[in-house]
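Dear Dr. H.,

I hope your travels went smoothly. While you were away I took the liberty of generating a structure for the chain from your last submission, since the lab meeting agenda had it listed for discussion. I wanted you to have the full record in hand beforehand rather than looking at slides cold. The sequence, exactly as received, is reproduced here:
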Amino acid sequence: MTLRRTLILVAAVAIAGAASVAAAPAPPRPYTPPPFAHKCHFRHFGEGVAPPATGYKDDPLCVDYAKRDITIDNGGAVRFVAAEPARFAIALKPCHYWQVDHWSVQVDRGFTAIVRWDGSYWWDRGRGIGGVLMAHFRIAGQPVGADQAAAFVATVSPTIAAGIRAYGAGGQGSGGGATFSLGGGDPTCQSH
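The corresponding predicted structure, in token form, is as follows:
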């Protein structure tokens, strides 16, 4: 009886272990554009321009936002904040989403930007994958590479700093990104 219980226990542990390995998300890897990139027709939005509240039927939905005028002196920051809710709302609808944006935050249009970067964020809910890239990152007009950002972050999180170092190469020397698992695919979304 003891041998039988032992064999059942060993089999159960082996099956559970195999299932957990199969279900474990893949580790992050360097940033790549989305697999549906070739199907994108980008919709471009100027400074402070919100997309229509009804969104678009596009799937993939690919958008390009100008966010270079997040400025105090001319109300650009207010226009940016006012447009963001609609931007978030339309992002939640499609199964395949890719957003490219261009950020610049400054106090006055005549001053050097406090921070500036170009972003790329995407997901494919059908495949359960996504990606994030911050490129051309600058603080006070100076390029900031992954090693510099990692050194700053390491004081509070060595783990996050290691991730920044590992995936910083995708930012062309001043930024970084990763492509990663989102924990399984959505069966209601077709893969492209």
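Two observations you may find useful: The mean pLDDT is 80. Residues 26-181 form one domain.

With kind regards,
E. W.
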